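Milestone M4 deliverable, item 7.
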Amino acid sequence: MAPRKKQSAEYQFPHPMENERLVGHADTLRSFMDAWDNRDTHPIHPVWMLTGPKGIGKATLAYKIAKMVYGNVGDFFIIDQERNIDKDGKPKPDGKVISVYTVRAMIDKMQMSSMSGDWRVVLIDSVDQLNTAASNAILKLLEEPPAKTLFLLVVHQLANVLPTVRSRARVEKMRPLTISQLRELCAKFIPDDEVSTETLRLANGSFGKIANLKTSGGDVIYAELMELLANNHANSADVMNVAKKIAPAPELHGILLDAIASHGLADLYPRATHAIADMRNVNLEPEIGIFKIIMEIKKCL
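Output delivered:
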């Protein structure tokens, strides 16, 4: 029997701003510290782009650098979903795109801020979420960056960034976390919960993915999916039962692709990827779409 799912309220994962525990990425931090410590003789690049998969600690590193640079004395400006606004200045954290109005509001605050000679930091989490107008507004700012201003740009997919923005940044490619690093983070943030080796592998080096799996119960559902696929006597009702558990949470749809990869079904992967995208973009019934994908996997086994 699959282990009982904990309620999400039992898990407390800190926001990157409050997270003092950076695991991994010592090389990226060292590169920045070398540049920062020698800024008087070799001017530091004003735009640092931290890129890599979601959930590996890019934002945690960005906030760690930011707090060190502005030191609670200079100014700190943040662009993210929590601060997203619409054209009327009203909060609009829709989780999808960051508006140009959010960027313009930040630029206005920068222009009104009192510069006492201390460093200012602009942190964007993430550049992937900037809509086209917002990206262009940032580009204008980066073309002539203000003096003693450091830009920290968190990027999940480098291909999503305008080439003109990318060309003005020092790009630091951050690697996924190792299994041992993931275990270290699990011991820190979910010490009372046993995280299986299968879940650690499923995370693909992303502690953020582990956090999502644990809060959503996705690790338990994935185990049920793998049991279903291994059961030659499972019927369509069993398949639909698992599909109904996956369907309500779009962030769990990816475990279908993980199952496909786990079984080495490379030919099925592109078709399943398109099917999942269609469920989101064409408003298809997710239960039916997921049911069909699971049945396709079983046919290939």
